[in-house]
Write a structure and sequence with these properties.
Blueprint: H1 9-43, H2 57-65, H3 72-99, H4 106-128, H5 132-154, H6 166-170
Length: 171
């Protein structure tokens, strides 16, 4: 008899998997945010142009928006907006990871709302700026995050009726 054959065993292990999924998105978004901040620092010449740990996304943004003659200052505002959005999503995923106790967590929904809306906004911007080469990437990220949310909410495990655990009610 394997552990999977023991009644209740998968449900007992599911919360750990769900927290691992939240940790993945928190770590990944933190890295994306960091490489974009460093890329912004390169664009502002605060870091040497040869600095390697940077995303290259600021240059990509400027090239993409060039189609409509977008001024540099608007590109800077757009990039700052993306940084803020990514940073917020990363923080919310860390909080969701830390406080996760079961389905219906307001922090899980807040994190996924920030993440999914970021990818949705990128996808709309890809259409506006005819950036079809990256649109598929943004749609895959949207789909991956949505699938993760569905896994967290639909896989068996701890049910948190009422939407907030004791730790969440205090915050």
């Amino acid at each position: 008899m394997s552990r999977a054959d023991i009644p209740g065993e998968p449900a007992r292990l599911a919360p750990g998997l769900k927290r691992l999924l939240l940790a993945f998105w928190a770590i990944w978004l933190s890295l994306v945010f960091t490489t974009n901040v460093l890329d912004g620092a390169k664009a502002l010449k605060l870091l040497d142009k040869d600095w390697l740990f940077a995303s290259g996304n600021y240059h990509f943004l400027a090239e993409t928006t060039k189609r409509y003659g977008t001024p540099d200052w608007i590109n800077g505002v757009l990039f700052l907006g993306v940084l803020g959005w990514e940073g917020l999503a990363a923080i919310l995923f860390w909080v969701a990871f830390r406080l996760y106790r079961g389905r219906g967590s307001r922090w899980v929904y807040a994190a996924f709302t920030a993440g999914l809306s970021l990818w949705a906004a990128f996808t709309v911007a890809d259409e506006v700026f005819i950036a079809y080469t990256v649109e598929a990437v943004h749609l895959r990220l949207f789909t991956a995050q949505l699938a993760t949310l569905l896994a967290i909410e639909l896989l068996p495990g701890t049910t948190n009726h009422g939407g907030a655990g004791p730790e969440e009610r205090q915050n």
